[in-house]
Amino acid sequence: MINKLIEKIKKLEAPIIVGLDPMMKFVPGYIQKKAFDEFGETLEGAAEAIWQYNKGIVDAICDLVPAVKPQVAMYEQFGIPGMIAFKKTVDYCREKGLVVIGDIKRGDIGSTSEAYAVGHLGKVTVGSGSFYGFDEDFVTVNPYLGSDGVEPFVKICGEEKKGIFVLVKTSNPSSGEFQDRMVEGKPLYELVGEKVAEWGSACMGDEYSYVGAVVGATYPEQGKALRRIMPKTFILVPGYGAQGGKGADLVHFFNEDGLGAIINSSRGIIAAYKQEQYASYGETGYADAARAAVLAMKEDISGALAGR
């Protein structure tokens, strides 16, 4: 799957992920009204609204970007109906040819982590048959429990030719409380980066490993150090746009071949119509506003890479 992701990035010249992180306040009123008229102001109604909202965005951007990243918490909050909307979103994105990165941030003791890996990337055995559960192409993984929590995912990656992105240096303001702590003369995030490179060395695609890393756009200097530590690791970079990251901040996440990183923007794209520069699109043009925001992001990143 890492080979497919790289192939699509090259073809589209767009190292961009759109984060499908729907919140009800982002969903235009006319979509909410239609869903509530059919299902009531219920969990089912909310799930229908976010599914229809997602579908409009995917239709508008699927020819521009290689990948999407639905954040599972935004669906879980609506219970079982929300998780059905999550699965419908995953399946629809794959039908449209998009690589799907499930932002699940799982990681637990061995047997539990194995169940997470099977449920999201692999097949679960039921009697004499086996079945895919959510069936994403990649998922995000929390390494806090160490190798016990990560290796079940790496095993499934090898079997299914899928991938993971391990949290290394996250974009949130308080990430340094733990991740920047010095251990044996190095910040903890560097030690995690070294471990990611080790896990990935046994699980390689043609150019890069199936085991990637998450490194926030808001920490470009740390990104520069981690790029050296993990030369064959693809880096998922959250924090563009709404969290302050800009194209000029991101060049160090890429290798000299112009590859090695993919940049995520979530609400900066899916809620673009709420921003002043895209307000003219209005609620009914929310998907067209998302498309315009993707094109602007693509121009920003390509310009930064060309000028480095």
Structure description:
Helix content is 45%, strand content 16%. It has one domain: TIM Barrel (Alpha-Beta Barrel). The protein has an eight-stranded parallel beta barrel with strand order 1-2-3-6-7-10-11-12, surrounded by seven helices. The model has no long low-confidence stretch (mean pLDDT 94). The protein is an alpha/beta fold.
Strand runs, count = 12
* Count of alpha/pi helices: 12
Weakly predicted, low-confidence segments: none
Superfamily (CATH H level) name: Aldolase class I
CATH architecture: Alpha-Beta Barrel
Structural class call reads alpha/beta
CATH class: Alpha Beta
Sheet with the most strands: spatial strand order: 1-2-3-6-7-10-11-12
Q: What is the CATH T-level topology?
A: TIM Barrel
Spatial separation of the terminal alpha carbons: 29 Å
* Fraction of residues in H or I helices: 40-55%
Radius of gyration over all CA atoms, rounded = 19 Å
